């Protein structure tokens, strides 16, 4: 199946709604604490104590709200839809008309960030957006000494799977033959590295001296020291 996706130009990464609400709540709490200290320690009066307590309570509830809201909040990225990209069997097509043969590429670098609505930022302690817009994925190519980077949108997990399958086929069938051997192997998604085709491809790269012996053996994988020695004799002798 051909992979197709919209190209997006990222203009600006903005502060998410979750972060704005969290900082607003934090500001209210700090204001309440500061003025409570001023009234108590400097003016020695309880005037306004009830109002300040209410402000701090509102701030605390606002912060608490963000811990729930963050799981429904999308990242905020100002962007512009700029075109379309397709990965065909033998060529890359940009905006339906520009066709580039894979063998003409001297660099091909793919970065998969997240698909639309995928959960992100799960390791953050403070509340922040937890849903992706799916447009921070990027493809960088070098063609005729000109390097270009495209941000593209992944619509879903199945859309990502189609992309990864296409990339695997491009590498295994040696379509990207003019890019660095080590880099081409790194393009292969992790879930395909147990396939026999993958092992055969690494063997081919070793025989053609496109990757060094140590790297090749590690990429192929081996179960014992003896197997490693046998592979070393076979491919690195």
Describe what you observe in this structure.
- The structure is a single chain.
- By secondary structure, the chain is α+β, with helices and mostly antiparallel strands.
- It has 2 domains: 3-10 and 74-192, Pleckstrin-homology domain (PH domain)/Phosphotyrosine-binding domain (PTB) (PH-domain like); 17-72.
- 43% of the residues lie in helices and 22% in strands.
- The chain has helices at residues 17-42, 49-69, 157-172, 181-186, 196-207, 213-220, 225-236, and strands spanning 3-14, 76-87, 91-94, 98-101, 105-111, 137-143, 146-152.
- A 7-stranded antiparallel beta sheet has the order 4-3-2-1-7-6-5, covered by helices on one side.
- A hairpin with a 3-residue loop joins strand 2 (76-87) and strand 3 (91-94).
- Helix 5 (196-207) packs antiparallel against helix 6.
- It is elongated, with a radius of gyration of 27 Å.
């Amino acid at each position: 199946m051909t992979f197709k996706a919209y190209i997006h130009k990222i203009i600006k990464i903005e502060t998410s709604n979750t972060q704005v609400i969290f900082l607003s709540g934090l500001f209210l709490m700090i204001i309440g604490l500061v003025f409570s200290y001023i009234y108590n320690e400097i003016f020695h009066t309880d005037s306004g104590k009830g109002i300040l307590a209410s402000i701090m309570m509102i701030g605390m509830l606002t912060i608490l709200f963000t811990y729930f809201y963050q799981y429904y909040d999308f990242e905020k990225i100002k962007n512009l839809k700029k075109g379309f990209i397709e990965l065909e069997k033998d060529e890359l097509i940009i905006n339906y008309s520009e066709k580039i043969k894979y063998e003409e590429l001297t660099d091909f670098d793919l970065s998969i960030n997240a698909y639309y609505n995928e959960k992100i930022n799960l390791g953050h302690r403070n509340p922040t957006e937890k849903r992706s817009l799916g447009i921070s994925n990027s493809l960088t190519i070098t063609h005729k000494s000109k390097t270009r980077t495209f941000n593209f949108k992944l619509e879903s997990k199945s859309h990502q799977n189609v992309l990864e399958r296409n990339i695997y086929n491009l590498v295994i069938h040696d379509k990207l033959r003019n890019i660095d051997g080590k880099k081409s192997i790194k393009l292969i998604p992790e879930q395909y590295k147990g396939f026999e085709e993958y092992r055969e491809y690494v063997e081919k790269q070793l025989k053609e001296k496109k990757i060094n012996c140590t790297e090749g053996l590690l990429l192929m994988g081996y179960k014992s020291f003896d197997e490693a020695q046998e592979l070393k004799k076979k491919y690195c002798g």
